[in-house]
Amino acid sequence: MRSFLFYFFKTFKDIKGFSAVFTTLILGSILYGFFYPTAYKAQQAEDLPIIIVDQDQSTLTNQIINTINSNPNIRITQITTNFLEAQQQVQAQKADAILLLPEKLSSDLLANPKNTGIGLYISSAYLIRVKQIASGLAISLENVIQNHLQRFGKVSHFSPELPIHQIPLFNTLSGYGSYIFPSVAPLIIHQTILLGVGMLIAGYREKKKWQPQPNEFFGFFAAIFAIGCLTSFYLFGFIFWLYDYPRGGNFLGMLIAVPIFISCIIALSMFIASFFDMPERVGHVLVPTSIVLFLLSGTSWPLQAMPLPLQWLSLCLPSTHAIQMFIQLNQMGVPTEIVIPKLIFLSISGLVFLVLAYIRLHPKNE
Question: Which domain of life is it from (predicted)?
């Protein structure tokens, strides 16, 4: 026990003395927690450029344009009657959307409203960002058209349908920050542990042939485990509260899941680190994996829309199960039994990687 505690505290001392590892494991998590969400503090995009193609040029279309112009999320860059010209502007990424107000819109709306339409063409280059244009225009058009039809109620027998109110269940602010950061937070923990442990063990191996005895091996594991758990509670607790992200859906489930997740990632990191002989190579090889792991998590693009080989690969990655699991627990508040399959996968994976890491790092009988 005394030997275990010696190596437990020695690991903290080694982390403090290795500036790259200290920056990654300790400072990296703290700074990421503050600065990553800051970029999305506004939550929703504003001042998005659109082009209006007004082929009717009536009182109704003027009212629509004036209403849209007062929307803070949308900025009208051009009003034209040429749709092809507007299309070229969107293709050149000088605008994000086109609103087409067709010819005879005002008269057709009164004569045959059910067969009258307004065209909205949105650039697919930034779908998450430009969704704000669609929601903003929908509200503006609905109000103007309702007012217009009420004024001419005696002429038209058309009765506007009741408005549809969209109420998000989990991302209550419908913001980009509250969508992206809860998904990125588990990956931040994953990557800081992966890089920090990799550089630390590679540093040991560079100085000498590091072959830890069981007390040293598990003392090292316990020290990183303590750091990983504290980092998780810091991000899932304090940072989510600080930026008012959805949180605390299943607090007890999160407390159960964090130790299992951290143990799995430490074991994976120790196993991968056993293949490196110097700290610099760890960064060269592992840093680019962050983008790949996030893509394969199914957050930025649905897994079901990916090729089957990528779906199979994603299901083999602990990061995929962890990201989806913590979104379910922290934001959606699902019962713990729903995430038991993910907990079992992380537990078994962690045990396998821990055994493999011990075999590779433990001294062999010669």
Answer: Bacteria
Phi, psi torsion values for 74, nearest 5 degrees: -130, 140
Give the β-pairing of 119-122 and 97-101. antiparallel
Q: Is 317 left (phi over 0), alpha (psi -120 to 50) or beta?
A: beta
User: What tens digit of pLDDT does each residue of 155-188 get?
Assistant: 445 454 545 556 667 776 667 777 888 889 999 9
Confidence at residue 42, expressed as pLDDT on a 0 to 100 scale: 64
CB-CB neighbours of 22 under 10 Å: 17
Amino acid code (one letter) for 286: L
C-alpha separations of 67 from 56, 59, 112, 145, 166 in Å? 16, 12, 24, 11, 21
User: Which CA distances in Å does 68 have to 18, 29, 261?
Assistant: 56, 42, 48
- Residues 140 and 67 placed together within one structural domain of the fold: yes
CATH label of the domain that carries residue 145: 3.40.1710.10
Q: Which domain holds residue 123?
A: 48-151
Residue 88 in domain: yes
DSSP bridge pairs for 122: 97
Cβ partners under 8 Å of residue 117, min gap 6: 102
DSSP string, 60-102: HHHHHHHHHHT-TTEEEEEEES-HHHHHHHHHTTS-SEEEEE-
- Which residue type is seen at 210? W
* pLDDT single digits (tens) 48-106: 788 988 888 887 788 888 888 877 778 888 888 888 888 888 888 888 888 888 887 77
Question: Which residues of the chain fall short of a pLDDT of 50?
Answer: 154-156, 158, 160, 162, 366
Cα three-residue angle 123-126-128, rounded to 5 degrees: 115
Instruction: Kindly report the pTM of this predicted structure.
Output: 0.75
Per-residue exposure over 292-306, b if at least 16 CB sit within 10 Å of its own CB, e if not: ebbebbbbeeeeeeb
* Whole-number Å distance between alpha carbons of 154 and 365: 97
- CA 194 to chain CA centroid, Å, is 19
What pLDDT score was predicted for residue 162?
46
**Residue 320, class by beta-carbon neighbours within 10 Å (0-12 exposed, 13-18 middle, 19+ buried)?**
buried
